[in-house]
């Protein structure tokens, strides 16, 4: 398996919200959805391989599942994980 294949498995999609857009401007930080089993080292290597930038720090946040009901059917939402990646001054990623 090539490095880019593995990088695409770790970085699923950008997480674009009002707060993440504000972080792009103020802190040069970008938010991504990642698998729940991904660690900070894998996330750092994947971002550097995919976008050709230098990563200064990686912070992660795990979202818990929640109970949901639709009529008689009860279930749970999917667990998720978000990575906030801070880049070196002068580097940027074209998100949109």
From TrEMBL:
- This protein's record includes keyword rRNA-binding: yes
Keywords on record = Ribonucleoprotein, Ribosomal protein, RNA-binding, rRNA-binding
Q: Single GO molecular-function term?
A: structural constituent of ribosome
- Per the record, what is one GO cellular component? ribosome
Check the record and name the Pfam families matching this protein. Answer: Ribosomal_L23 (PF00276)
Q: Where are the transmembrane segments?
A: none
Q: Taxonomically, which superkingdom? A: Bacteria
User: What processes in GO biological process is this protein linked to?
Assistant: translation
Entry-linked PANTHER family: 60S RIBOSOMAL PROTEIN L23A
Summary of the function given for this chain in its UniProt record: One of the early assembly proteins it binds 23S rRNA. One of the proteins that surrounds the polypeptide exit tunnel on the outside of the ribosome. Forms the main docking site for trigger factor binding to the ribosome.
Assembly description: Part of the 50S ribosomal subunit. Contacts protein L29, and trigger factor when it is bound to the ribosome.
Q: Which family does it belong to?
A: Belongs to the universal ribosomal protein uL23 family.
Name of the protein this chain belongs to:
Large ribosomal subunit protein uL23
Q: What is the lineage of its organism?
A: Bacteria, Pseudomonadati, Planctomycetota, Planctomycetia, Planctomycetia incertae sedis
